[in-house]
């Protein structure tokens, strides 16, 4: 019996754990928020582009999580972690097969992206290419992005702002970024006002998405040190990281209020402030105990609460 046949098959429950299905809502909700904002603020919606981007966005989200699990398995210095905690080693799955499966998801995402480039503008090739670069090199390469103190920023910008920006980009004209070629030169132009508008609208999700990664790294700080992953909490120290942590959800709510005051969001979005007691309770639970199994999900819960609240309120505002 060769090594490949000795591995366990990938069952449906194991696949769902491999891709961390509950966390996929963190990719779906920014997509829905971007689509809703395109309709609310610009009065435009392209259903074909929206469906293409939905398939591409979810494919890249599945790729990132599964690929990260495979790379963590290969790069693990702590053999006990690789054998008992990483799903590849714990369930004796074939790393090669898992890598091939994630490659299929990446190929599907690239195909959807190229279709959208053809239907929209060449500038999307640069934007999408930057996102895929981060997705691949987040855990791949000699110095993965996840092992340096910028993972939280990259996660927030890519999954938060990037998703919302592209969801608007594929639905509206004129587009916030435009790239045109002629025989002798090319012209890249950008509407800075529109880009800043989308950034401010996306900031609450950017912050809360980064907070999820921050909470993850706080919980894993000891394990990360053993595996030579030097994340932001390592450089800050756990004590300083925990002093910063409770201010991040507060900043996210401040950004919602600021967007409403600047009339980038309609006043019904202020109702999202009613979710603050739930978010504060989640934050307090995490501050009391930093555990991957017991309290890490509070950060995800806060992100989902605010993102889903904004989506629902935008839909209400559209209907009104």
UniProtKB/TrEMBL annotation:
Q: Which UniProt keywords apply?
A: Membrane, Menaquinone biosynthesis, Transferase, Transmembrane, Transmembrane helix
Query: Could you tell me where this protein is found in the cell?
Result: Membrane
Topology with respect to the bilayer: Multi-pass membrane protein
Which InterPro entries does the UniProt entry name for this protein? UbiA_prenyltransferase, UbiA_sf, UBIAD1
Keyword match Transmembrane helix:
yes
Which stretches are transmembrane? 50-67, 98-117, 124-141, 153-174, 186-207, 251-276, 296-319
State the source organism's domain of life.
Bacteria
ATP-binding as UniProt keyword: no
Biochemical pathway:
Quinol/quinone metabolism; menaquinone biosynthesis
What is the official name of this protein in its record? Answer: UbiA family prenyltransferase
């Amino acid at each position: 019996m060769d090594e490949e046949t000795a591995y366990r098959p990938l069952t449906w429950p194991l696949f769902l754990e491999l891709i961390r299905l509950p966390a996929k809502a963190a990719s779906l909700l920014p997509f829905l928020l971007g689509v809703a904002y395109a309709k609310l603020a610009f009065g435009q919606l392209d259903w074909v582009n929206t469906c293409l981007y939905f398939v591409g966005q979810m494919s890249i989200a599945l790729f990132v999580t599964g690929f990260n699990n495979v790379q963590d398995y290969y790069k693990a210095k702590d053999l006990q972690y690789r054998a008992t905690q990483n799903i590849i080693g714990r369930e004796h799955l074939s790393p090669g097969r898992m890598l091939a499966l994630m490659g299929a998801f990446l190929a599907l995402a690239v195909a959807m992206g190229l279709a959208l480039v053809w239907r929209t503008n060449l500038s999307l090739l640069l934007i999408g290419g930057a996102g895929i670069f981060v997705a691949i090199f987040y855990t791949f390469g000699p110095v993965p992005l996840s092992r340096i103190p910028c993972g939280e920023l990259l996660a927030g910008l890519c999954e938060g702002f990037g998703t919302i920006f592209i969801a608007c980009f594929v639905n509206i004209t004129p587009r916030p970024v435009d790239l045109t070629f002629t025989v002798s030169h090319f012209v890249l132009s950008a509407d800075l006002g529109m880009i800043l508008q989308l950034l401010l609208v996306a900031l609450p999700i950017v912050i809360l998405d980064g907070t999820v990664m921050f909470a993850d790294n706080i919980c894993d700080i000891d394990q990360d040190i053993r595996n030579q992953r030097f994340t932001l909490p390592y450089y800050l120290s756990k004590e300083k990281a925990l002093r910063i942590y409770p201010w991040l959800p507060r900043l996210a709510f401040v950004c919602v209020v600021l967007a409403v005051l600047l009339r980038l969001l309609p006043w019904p979005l202020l109702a999202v402030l009613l979710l603050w007691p739930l978010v504060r309770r989640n934050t307090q639970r995490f501050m009391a105990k930093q555990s991957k199994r017991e309290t890490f999900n509070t950060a995800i819960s806060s992100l989902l609460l605010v993102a889903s609240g904004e989506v629902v309120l935008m839909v209400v505002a559209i209907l009104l």
